[in-house]
Write a structure and sequence with these properties.
Layout (H helix, E strand, L loop, with lengths): L1 E4 L2 E4 L28 H13 L15 E8 L2 E8 L9 E10 L2 H8 L9 E2 L3 E9 L11 E5 L13 E5 L3 E3 L6 H4 L2 H15 L8 H11 L3 E5 L4 H12 L3 E6 L4 H7 L3 E4 L5 H12 L5 E4 L3 H10 L6 E5 L13 E3 L5 H5 L4 H12 L8 E4 L6 H10 L6 E5 L2
Helix pairs in contact: 4-6, 4-11, 8-9
Organism: Extremus antarcticus
Protein name: Enoyl reductase (ER) domain-containing protein
Keywords: Oxidoreductase
């Protein structure tokens, strides 16, 4: 089957493809390095050298296990199911091996394949969030044990960490206990959208992390309303952002479609502006009618044109901050009183101190204060991931989160 995209025709293969993969790829390649095919012989040699390397893993028990199955990107724009992926090994004493039960699907998953980025080499294994059970731990891992139910957020630089496989290996600080009230399917929503919303608010917008729901609202009542604009409030990230902002003491102005306006209001948005039959400039004017010249915080989850309109909605006299999760145009003119939040979710992986935001998120979800979106589960394992990504790409999920059940 041949699909059309912005860059022309791309080949798509649904047939099973046998591939041989090594462990970590070149960690020094930059974020947008274009992947180039490697020969099977090169991967075999890479695996041999990796297996013989001197590392902390040499002190860990070595257990040879049967190969596993993964959904791989085997060449540009081409997927393939591989049943001969080497069983992933724990290479440092701070790593955790997880059996994958459910994976969340995210726009970055299909965009990285369509536009050929975040894949250091071929074949590569994608996927950035999962819920599952702990299968093995390194010697420095003290708070997790075999059999624990967990969720995790991962990073594209390590092939072992791709979640579109039966087992994956990740650093221990990226693994959180799955709240007892949550299923694996619900837990697979937390590693990207929920964590992005939490870190955007608490780390990059410098909103105070709530110790308790009552404390946040007592503080907000005494100080008066502080507004935040969330453009794209019915997206999965937007749904988490609305709830977290509200429970952090903010008054939320959400922009959604008419179809999802009641959803945003139910989650805690005090004001909901529907985008149907309105221009972006008219929406920005409606925001200013609510917040006047006092809006100092904004999150855009839609695109560079809506991000630009967020800039016009922000205060012209007070310092403001915009978190453009969908990015701004390079030539966008930024008002002098506005700063752009440098949102980079890789910081969760490469800076272990950011775990505190995931822990705060986990407490709110575990207590039921923050709820997960409606989940649409695709059954059938890794074979359903590509289909799910195409559904996600078409859009119009009305706020539902796509999850694939692996085991």
């Amino acid at each position: 089957m041949v699909l059309k995209c912005l860059f022309g025709c791309i080949g798509r293969s649904s047939r099973n493809t046998s591939v041989l993969t090594g462990t970590n790829a070149d960690e020094k390649r930059r974020h947008k390095t274009t992947a180039e095919p490697q020969s099977k012989e090169a991967f075999v040699e890479s695996q041999r050298l990796s297996d013989s390397s001197d590392s902390v893993a040499s002190s860990l028990p070595s257990r040879r296990k049967a190969p596993i199955t993964a959904l791989c990107v085997v060449a540009k724009h081409t997927y393939g199911i591989a049943a001969d992926i080497p069983y992933p090994s724990i290479d440092t004493s701070d790593e955790v091996l997880i059996r994958t039960h459910a994976v969340g699907l995210n726009p970055i998953d299909w965009k990285s394949v369509d536009y050929n980025f975040c894949m250091p080499s071929f074949p590569w294994i994608g996927g950035r969030e999962l819920a599952g059970t702990v299968e093995e731990v390194g010697s420095n891992v003290k708070e997790l044990k075999v059999g624990d139910r967990v969720w995790a957020s991962t990073y594209y630089r390590d092939r072992r960490a791709g979640t579109f496989q039966e087992f994956c290996v990740v650093p221990q600080h990226t693994v959180l206990p799955l709240p007892p009230r949550l299923s694996f399917d619900a837990g697979a929503c937390l590693g990207v959208a929920a964590l992005t919303a939490a870190m955007t608010l608490w780390k990059w917008l410098h909103v105070t992390v709530p110790i308790s729901f009552s404390e946040a609202h007592t503080t907000a009542a005494s100080a008066g309303p502080r507004h935040i604009l969330i453009w794209g409030g019915s997206t999965v990230t937007g749904q988490f952002a609305i709830q977290l902002a509200r429970h952090s003491g903010l008054s939320v102005i959400a922009v959604t479609s008419e179809k999802t306006a009641t959803l945003a209001a139910r989650l805690g948005a005090e004001h909901v502006i529907t985008r149907d039959h309105r221009t972006n400039d008219e929406i920005a004017a409606a925001v200013r009618a609510i917040a006047e010249d006092d809006l100092t915080l904004a999150i855009d989850i839609v695109g560079n044109t809506t991000g630009a309109c967020c800039l016009t909605a922000l205060s012209t006299t007070r310092p403001g901050v915009l978190a453009p999760l969908a990015f701004l145009k390079d030539a966008e003119v930024i008002p002098q009183n506005v700063s752009i939040a440098p949102v980079e979710m890789k910081r969760f992986i490469i800076e272990d101190g950011n775990r505190l935001y995931a822990e705060a998120l986990n407490r709110l979800v575990g207590s039921g204060v923050v709820t997960v979106p409606e989940v649409e589960v695709l059954h059938g394992g890794l074979q359903r991931v590509e289909e799910g990504l195409q559904t996600l790409k078409r859009g119009d999920l009305s706020g539902r989160k796509l999850v694939v059940r692996i085991a």
